[in-house]
Design a protein that fits this description.
- It is a single chain.
- With 330 residues, this protein is α+β, with helices and mostly antiparallel strands.
- 37% of the residues lie in helices and 23% in strands.
- The protein has three domains: 77 residues, Orthogonal Bundle (Arc Repressor Mutant, subunit A); 117 residues, ATPase, nucleotide binding domain (Nucleotidyltransferase, domain 5, 2-Layer Sandwich); 63 residues, no CATH class.
- It contains ten helices and 14 strands.
- α2 crosses α3 and α9 packs across α10.
- The longest helix has 26 residues.
- The radius of gyration is 24 Å and the shape is elongated.
- The chain starts with a helix and ends in a 5-residue tail after the last helix.
Length: 330
């Protein structure tokens, strides 16, 4: 029982610390009194947490609050240029890794071709090397990195920080958190890429002031991130928002998952690219080839090529997007 109480106290302490840090990040420069008002934490609790954060050089005092009478409160600001976060996106095309400061300003960004269909060992070796190179190139001490977030396509066990399975990547049971935390002294967090995108939309985008919304992504696959009461909803087994393999037409095109007529088979980037290639093979009138560096290099066609053609009035490209937009409508 004593161990449970100690554990609960430590958890509450960590949660309160995170609340204070987020408040300073979102509202700084801000005074201790304002933090207490924003968070409903006692002023003494806030002051103790702030003292510890100042000691660790995570925050600093910066001037005084304008006063309408009485003693002026000292303002607190996050030491944004002394702590950093790594963000990693792993997808079919490759690995994108970024280094940001605590104000979410991107300081460095790199793309590395992804070792698709490689085993866990090769994937982790690539990530470890890329992370070390990024840290060394930017002359940053590892202890200055407060955490690393990984967004990956597939089913994720968020608590274990593990990619359970990804059909599109050909990987399974990749223990990102466990293995990376053995190599580095910062915590690693793993989630589905669409959930990471949705979290960014909640913090920086149109979802900033909205507590309940759905963020739908259409790319190599189709999926959604769900926000309920301001938090990402993962579902019981982490599969919330995975609707790309709902059967739209049992006699439809073959999906990479092995089934026929999935939503992804009708609405993904690859469907759009395949449709425009089909139009070209049938010699239909389209400007697609005029947009390519090499007119006969059809493998260089991307969904952005088709978007550009549609924006320039290409009838065939516009019809393809209209067809995609009508998926599921009878």
């Amino acid at each position: 029982m004593d161990n449970i109480r100690r554990g609960n106290k430590q958890l509450i302490k960590e949660l309160n610390r995170a609340i204070v840090i987020n408040t300073i990040l979102n509202y700084g420069p801000v005074s201790r009194t304002r933090i207490s008002e924003f968070t409903d934490l006692g002023l003494s609790t806030v002051s103790n947490i702030v003292a510890d954060l100042i000691k660790k050089e995570l925050i600093y005092e910066t001037g005084e609050e304008e006063s309408s009478g009485g003693r002026r409160a000292i303002l607190l600001e996050f030491n944004c240029n002394d702590r950093f976060v790594l963000g990693i996106k792993i997808g079919l095309d490759g690995i994108v890794i970024g280094l940001v400061n605590m104000k979410s300003k991107i300081l460095s960004r790199h793309f590395i071709p992804s070792p698709v269909n490689s085993n866990e060992k090769i994937v982790l070796e690539v990530l470890i090397k890329v992370i070390r190179d990024l840290i060394n190139k930017n002359h940053i001490q590892t202890e200055k990195i407060v955490g690393c977030g990984i967004g990956v396509s597939g089913l994720v066990n968020q608590k274990k920080g593990m990619l359970v399975f990804s059909k599109i990547l050909g990987w399974k049971e990749v223990r990102f958190k466990e293995l990376l935390e053995k190599e580095f002294d910062f915590p690693v967090f793993v989630d589905k890429d669409v959930n990471a995108l949705t979290l960014a939309e909640k913090r920086f985008g149109v979802g900033k002031e909205i507590n309940n919304f759905i963020c739908i992504t259409i790319g190599k696959g189709v999926g959604a991130g769900i926000v309920i009461n301001g938090d990402i909803y993962h579902g019981r087994h982490g599969g919330a928002g995975d609707f790309g393999h709902i059967i739209i037409d049992k006699d439809g095109p073959l999906c990479y998952c092995g089934k026929q007529g999935c939503l992804e088979a009708f609405a993904s980037d690859q469907f759009i690219i395949n449709k425009i290639k089909e139009a070209l093979s049938n010699r239909q009138d389209t400007i697609i080839k005029d947009l390519l560096k090499k007119k006969e290099d059809l493998d260089s066609i991307t969904v952005n090529t088709v978007i550009e053609a549609a924006q320039k009035g290409d009838i065939i490209s516009k019809k393809i997007f209209q067809e995609v937009g009508r998926v599921g409508i009878k």
